[in-house]
Amino acid sequence: MAPYLLTAGVSLLAKSFSVLSCTGSLARCTSVLPSAFFSPVKCLTSEARSPPKRPLNGYMRYVQQQKPIVARQNPEIKAVDLIKTIAQQWRSMSPEQKQPFQEASLRAREQFKVDLERYQAQLTPAQLQEQAQEKRQRRAKRKAIRKKRELTNLGKPKRPRSPFNIFMSEHFEEAKGITSQAKMKSLLEDWRNLFSHQKQVYTQLAEDDKIRYKNEMKSWEDHMVDIGREDLIRERTLSNKKKPAAKAKKATKKAKTVKKATGTSKPSKKTTKSRSAKTVSPPSTKKT
Description:
about 0% strand; single chain; mainly alpha
């Protein structure tokens, strides 16, 4: 038993010396240390870390602080009512009470600028270009969402539905499948198996929906012109509205040109006076 303990002690002592002398070889280090204590990726790679997160403003910092407090005081409160309560508290606070949260936000913003410059300094030109492209895409997506929300609030008519969309809306509940994707796949297969005369019903409904959309869009665009939002009107509609005015202007110009060429323009005042002077008869002489 004693020789076995001695051998185990010598082996453990040798491993401890190998740990202390493993500064030159990564393989020797990883053979002794567990993976939980050593991460070769973090030590050897120079890949850029993730970008810094944008700091919270003063209000969001207050929300973060008050959320657990209000939830603890009102265990049955809903999430929407929780945020409304905190927002009401924030509005009732004085500028002096808001100042600590706003100052903390300013300090975090300055630190964010420093971290962002440090992060961008270690990126390659290709990575910077990729980030700029992603930023443009996010900006375009947000712009499209805002525009869609604005058009919805202004009451823009919904686009006409296709025959398959009408068929799908009528049979979606009774379709096979549990998920929406499975139901749509089943409905697509059913649509393909329909006969022509069965599809004709939905085709006619789609044509009627196109007429509905055309009439509603005309009324909506006329209303947009009345309220001064011509920027929301389709270019095709604007061009159609400009055509009659352009034609009338062109016809007027052509009539003036023809009138001038034929010499039927109105005579001037001088010409009228000279003509009247020539046509005046001489005075009659009295007989002596």
